[in-house]
Amino acid sequence: MKKNILIIGGSGLVGNKIAQILAKRNNDYIILIGSRKGSSEIARQIQIDVNDTKSFDIIKKQRIDLIVLCTSDKINNILSYCIENNIDYLDITKPTPDLENSYQLAKSKFINSKIVFGSGWMVGLVSSLAFFTIPKTENIETIKLLVYYSINDLAGKSSAYFMAENVAKPFKVYKQNKAILVKHFMNIEKHNFKFDLGKRKCYNFDTPDLFILNQIEKIPTVEVKTTYSSKAITLLLHYFQVIKLFQILPLSVRKLLFSANGNGDQTVFDIVIKTSNITKTISLQSVLGQAYLTAFSTVLNIEKTIQTQNNGLYFSHQLFEPNEFYNLINSSETINIKKDFQ
Ligand SMILES: NC(=O)c1ccc[n+]([C@@H]2O[C@H](COP(=O)([O-])OP(=O)(O)OC[C@H]3O[C@@H](n4cnc5c(N)ncnc54)[C@H](OP(=O)(O)O)[C@@H]3O)[C@@H](O)[C@H]2O)c1
Question: What is the pTM of this model?
Answer without folding.
Answer: 0.96
